[in-house]
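Risk register update: the risk of archive-format incompatibility is retired. Evidence:
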Amino acid sequence: MKSSNLLIAALFMPVIFCQAQVTEPAGKVAGAPAQALPGGISSDTYVIGASDLLTVTVWKEVTLSGSILVRPDGMITMPLVGDLQAAGLTPQQLADQIAAKLKKFMQDPQVSVVLSQIHSKVIYILGEVEKKGPVDMTPGMTLLQAISSAGGLSEFANAKKMYILRDDGGKHEKIPVRYKDALKGASDLDLPLKPGDTIVVP
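Archived output:
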């Protein structure tokens, strides 16, 4: 009799465990690290801009979840919610606003907003490169990645005199670049970029 009871308990334990696993809402995992963004920016403080691509997830609502592009006017459009201002908000602030709108239609909506692609933040490349001008930043973009996205240096480039111009809180910086050493694998010289940086290649 005791052995049959143990057998029944063993059969039901996996079911109980699986049910316990799905009680945590998606996008609300405790202790999850903040999303990594370019130039050391935290996803908690990143301000959404026009042309950024967002992934909005509403727990258990597949039809309300998906990728959304921020329009040039800074707005997004979602089913049930309609038009909503996204530019100027952090991902968490936008998630809170979406959740507040959805409360009219469902009980305790769980919403997460993640940045999939950043297009509102750009850096600039001037001088002896194949493609001059603004370049959309990708998450974690570095000096070498930016030069590569510009088609590389031209044959007339003076790599020894390259530098980055940066406006950091009103303070103007001129940061020397050791491009050839970075190419050789010196990771500490492959400098992470910040929005608004200008790479100058004489």
